[in-house]
Structure formats: structure tokens, C-alpha cells
Amino acid sequence: MMADTPQTTVLIGSDGFDLDPSDETSIIEEMAHYEQPQAACIEALKIVQRRHGWVPDSAITAIARLLGIGPGEVEGVATFYSLIFRQPVGRHVVLVCDSSACFLTGFQELRQALVAQLGIDYGQTTEDGRFTLLPVCCLGACDGAPALMIDDDTYGPVSPEDLPGVLEDYP
């Protein structure tokens, strides 16, 4: 005879997250553009990320509840898209393009210079919380390779010598 084992349910996030009222309004407005509410999932994640700088686990459940879909669906979208941050990031996110064009035109030197100047590697944030360094597979800036993006600003071609001037614009 098998012993009874308790059933457990694993929830993504928690019920403790409340969407900001203006974010909730923005998500509802975004949902109105689509026949299916789940189509607004990416934009809902971006809305939350704009306010918090990243998407906490507890926000997944709140977004899912508002969209009327399961939290697993929202989690799947959030983990698929590399520009949805699932952990805290610095005030400025530096994305270094490692596409073929960038690789062939100096990506490695640019990456090494960034690592040396910031004192961090991919996936890390500077001690002062100023920068997080991440790779990205393509910025669509092949004509300006090697390229990088800081927040919403794309730079290229960028040489290691250009970095101090570029980074100083991001306090």
C-alpha cells in the first residue's frame, strides 16, 4: 500500500504584487487592440518593466490575472524575450551585440574593453548599480558594427577608445 503524500501546488510569483493603477489602465488599453488578451502579454511585461526596471516574479501572477490567462503563459513569454529582465538590473543596461557582423568587426575587443572598464562580466551589475552588462544576438545595426546599446540608444561602430566618452553620458 502506498503512503499518502501531500499534494503541493507551485505558484509562479505571489499574490502580493499590485499593479500600479496607471500601469493597469495602460495594459487594459493595450488589450483593446487585440482579439485575444494574451496578445498584449509582451506589452504588459514592458509596462511593468518600465516602472520597476525589471519584472519581479510576483508581477507575473498579477499580469496573468489581468490578461485572464495562466501565469505559466506569462512566464513563458517573459523568459523567452531577452529584453524582459527577470532580475534587478542597473540603472543602465549595456547590450553588446555579438552577431556575425559585430563578431567580424571587433566585438571581442569591444567586449574585453567593457569588461575591463566596468569591472564586471556578462550578467553582472556594477557595485554602484550603474550598469548591467548583457550580450544580445543582434541589434540590427550591422552597418555600424561593432555595436552596442545602452538603454534605448544604439552606438556603432564603437571602438574600445570610444567607451569612456559613451559611458560618461549615463550617470
List keywords for this structure.
Arc Repressor Mutant, subunit A, Glutaredoxin, single chain, about 170 residues, disordered N terminus, 7 helices
How would you characterize the overall build of this protein?
The protein is of the alpha+beta class. 39% of the residues lie in helices and 11% in strands. It has a four-stranded mixed beta sheet, with helices on one face. Strand 3 and strand 4 (153-155) form a beta hairpin. The longest helix has 12 residues, at 41-52. Mean pLDDT is 91; it is low at 1-14.
Write the layout of secondary structure elements.
Elements: H1 21-31, H2 41-52, H3 57-67, H4 71-80, E1 92-97, H5 100-104, H6 107-118, E2 131-136, E3 148-150, E4 153-155, H7 163-167
Parallel strand pairs: 1-2
Antiparallel strand pairs: 1-3, 3-4
